[in-house]
Specification:
Helix content: 40-55%
Number of strands: 5
Low-confidence stretches: 1-7, 11-54, 65-72, 78-83
Structural class: mainly alpha
Mean pLDDT: 81
Strand content: 5-15%
Number of helices: 17
Radius of gyration: 21 Å
Shape: globular
Number of domains: 2
Length: 360
């Protein structure tokens, strides 16, 4: 792996995240003007948006992107007072920028159907992510980083071979003690991947002093962000405004990473204002655990508990072959109330209830 990138997720290199991203940059927005897409770029944007359920590469591909060597982004202006007046609270810095406006329009426009599904998934995965953020004293608005990475889909997989809610590449996942093997891919485990991702983000915040810079590092690699910060500001550490100071030096995809995250937050905090009426949140993740012998198929687990196999598979997205690894006992997650009977029928052991995450 490129030593400078080290552990960046989602697969941005010095070039765009995908061929779609390169070819879609047909019109560079001018400061103060709303970006416009040509018909060709629009078609490419729609096609590229399905590459991974909600990754930054998929969303940014085909969108008008800033080209190398252009002038820095217009200076953003804080909008905290405006947010407070509207009764909307943030624990991340909120800035006013044309790229944020652009992605708000994109998420509620061409991406409407996908965005709606992502908003519904907040009910399922939002409580566990927010609880872990809260327990660590981290901004709960970092939930929106997950949403732009994967659309809150643990099965999301990108062209850069990043997987799960947090779109870890294999090397980064293993660096944070996630198993990535033939039978188990814990990058797809919502609980373990969230724990790993938050550790990574906190480490970068400790290094840079800014959640915006930590988010940039999450996308493109912390060593690249550190190098650019030293070259532009003379120090690795800075505040959120420093992100905009180095904006034009970041890889194309990473320039839109924070704007897209903030845009997602604007919509998630006020969905009806943006045309998302009647959102029906999914039920919060809840399960019990059963320890079963190696080589146990998830279909057999479902049959032993007389439950829908799809439900058991949904609770265990990290068991990528639909079976536990041979040669070792392993816990599997099962619907609440079914662990005892499953354990009895399979000769396993009821390992207790999983954590309970309450909807906000």
């Amino acid at each position: 792996m490129n030593e400078e990138r080290q552990a960046g997720n989602g697969g941005s290199d010095e070039t765009a995240a995908s061929e779609g991203g390169k070819k879609g940059a047909e019109e560079t927005p001018k400061p103060g003007r709303r970006p416009r897409l040509s018909r060709t770029a629009k078609r490419r944007a729609l096609a590229a948006a399905g590459v991974a359920a909600g990754s930054i590469g998929a969303l940014a591909a085909g969108q008008p992107a800033a080209e190398e060597g252009i002038a820095p982004a217009p200076a953003p202006e804080p909008t905290s007072e405006v947010a407070a007046e509207k009764g909307v609270t943030w624990d991340l810095t909120v800035t006013d920028h044309e790229r944020i406006d652009f992605f708000v329009d994109f998420l509620k426009g061409r991406n409407y159907d996908k965005t709606r599904v992502w908003l519904e998934r907040i009910g399922k995965y939002g409580p566990l992510i927010r609880q872990q953020l809260r327990e660590r004293g981290m901004p709960e608005d970092l939930l929106y980083l997950t949403m732009i990475e994967s659309g809150l889909d643990p099965n999301a997989y990108s062209r850069a071979h990043a997987a799960g809610l947090w779109q870890f590449i294999s090397e980064t996942g293993q660096r944070y003690d996630l198993e990535v093997s033939d039978y188990v891919d814990e990058r797809r485990d919502p609980l373990k991947a969230t724990d790993a991702a938050l550790t990574y983000l906190q480490e970068m915040h400790d290094r840079f002093g800014s959640w915006y810079l930590a988010a940039a590092g999450y996308n493109t690699g912390e060593n690249r962000v550190a190098r650019i910060m030293r070259e532009v500001t003379g120090s690795e550490r800075g505040d959120d405004e420093a992100y905009w100071q180095i904006w034009d030096r970041l890889p194309r995809e990473t320039r839109d990473y924070v704007p897209l995250m903030i845009a997602m937050g604007h919509i998630a905090k006020e969905p009806e204002k943006h045309g998302f009426h009647g959102i029906e949140p999914m039920t919060a993740l809840e399960f019990e655990k059963v320890s079963v012998p190696g080589g146990t198929k998830l279909t057999d687990v479902a049959q032993a508990g007389d439950v829908d196999p799809a439900v058991v598979a949904d609770l265990n997205p990290h068991l990528v072959k639909g079976t536990t690894p041979p040669g070792r006992a392993m816990e599997v997650r099962v619907p609440v109330g079914r662990a005892t009977v499953i354990a009895a029928n399979l000769g396993g052991q009821h390992s207790g209830a999983g954590p309970v995450y309450l909807a906000d």
